[in-house]
Design brief:
By secondary structure, the chain is mainly α. It has one domain. It is 63% helix and 2% strand. It contains six helices and two strands. Strands 1-2 form a two-stranded antiparallel sheet. It starts with 16 loop residues before the first strand and ends with a helix.
Length: 195
């Protein structure tokens, strides 16, 4: 049986991008200064110096760029700071997502504990907190951590804008296709040279 004639047009290849975390994403998931203060007051934890964390990280990145200025060109500096700031933003975003899950679990446990007909959610023995209380305290701790990392990320983003003169944006990298081996990719590249 004869093979169907192939089309002279080359097939378009769609490249999927893995989206990086953005500053907007961390602002949606991590507590802001007023919410962090409310958490600290409600749970009796330390109040973090939000502005101090932000300012320190802004100075840290700016001073690092100043120290590297003689050794790096403009493009190299931009790439380096892109990666550094991306790490701060990614860390804060991960903490924010973890905080959101912890809050959901604390709310669920608290709602279950409010139901008098459930024996498994009753308070623990005298001197021990209930499971719901432990989940609320855990969520509060994670909330303060997420807020602190948000402030560090915002400081790094501000420093990037100051040093580079442009707004930081996440690097969106192509998604590797699982199952495509390196030798197969090499073979495809070599064959495409004949087209």
């Amino acid at each position: 049986m004869a093979k169907p004639a192939s089309s002279p047009r080359q097939s378009a290849r769609v490249v999927q991008l893995r989206k990086g975390a953005t500053v907007e994403m961390i602002r949606l998931t991590c507590p802001d200064a007023s919410q962090a203060l409310k958490i600290a007051e409600s749970f009796g934890t330390a109040v973090v110096d939000s502005d101090g964390i932000r300012d320190l990280h802004e100075r840290l990145i700016t001073e690092t760029a100043d120290a590297l200025a003689d050794g790096l060109g403009d493009k190299a500096m931009q790439i380096h700071l892109q990666r550094i700031v991306g790490a701060y933003v990614g860390s804060a975003h991960g903490a924010g997502q973890f905080y959101s899950r912890a809050v959901t679990e604390a709310r669920d446990a608290t709602a279950k504990a409010a139901n008098d007909a459930r024996d498994e959610d009753l308070d623990g023995p005298v001197g021990y907190d209930s499971a719901a209380q432990r989940k609320r305290e855990f969520a509060a701790d994670i909330g303060i951590q997420a807020h602190s990392l948000r402030m560090a990320a915002e400081g790094a983003v501000a420093a990037y804008a100051q040093v580079i003169g442009d707004t930081w944006k996440p690097f969106d990298r192509p998604v590797e296709q699982p199952g495509t081996s390196l030798s197969r990719k090499a073979a495809e590249a070599q064959i495409s040279a004949f087209d």
